[in-house]
Amino acid sequence: MTDSLAVSVQPTVGDDVGEARSLAQDAWRSLRKNKLFWVSVALITVFVLMAVWPSLFTKTDPTFGDINNVRAKPNGDAWFGTDTQGYDIFARTIYGARASIIVGILTSLTTLLVGGAVGIIAGFYGGWLDALVSRITDIFFAIPLLLGGILFMSSFPNNPQTTPYFLIVGKVVLTLTIFGWPSIARLMRSSVLQVKPNEYVLAARALGASPWRIIRSHILPNALAPAIVVSTINLGAYIVAEATLSFLGIGLTPPAISWGVAISDALVAVRTYPHILLFPSLFLSLAVLAFILLGDAVRDAFDPKSR
To answer: At CA 189, angle to CA 188 and CA 191, rounded to 5?
Structure first.
């Protein structure tokens, strides 16, 4: 008589067989291995610190202009030199991150909220409501973001002497939100249309779940990822749009400090003193690049086909 042999296979360390992971866990696992993700996170962390706590980087008053020391080249006292009004360029570059980052983050959040809500309603209920939303988004798509911002800000100009700082920032955020939400709405609508026929949604309907419960528990968690990815990428575009409007003199205006305002002021002496334009432009480019890299990394992590 032969003994039956029981063969047991012990899982090795790091073996993922049998593990049940959600999409978010899978995405985070992919992000941790992406070097560009950590580079973008490091850059964004620095820029956020500059926006929240600028005194951590410089003790110089960015609003103090030394008329006896204008257009000075980079030196030990002024690391980036001074501009045409004697302002310390390093201090104004550090403090300029606040307005640019605030505009970018708030605009991304508001477009995600407005566009996401409109897209979910249009995709979930469909019918005449979906057709109406589609026609409205078509109207907004006919107006480019930057052109719409120029028209709106020109129609409601700022008064640097009387308009509060946060009102100026809020006006720029509102302008970019008005012309930026349709792309998120269309993306969210298409995501909802893909999720709605799934079995777990049909089962929730059959069990008598309310529309709000279906949206909150089943539709939103499974349709939100693409909109978050696009909003992250758009954040860099909104920073550029704010800088462009400020450069044209219709966005943020002095005494507000932003990279766009600094670039606009630097054009007066760009040929003879290029360092005045170099540093705010460099920081603006790095900030936009960081958010685009982050968006690309998150997009690849949430896309199973890229893995």
So the answer is: 65
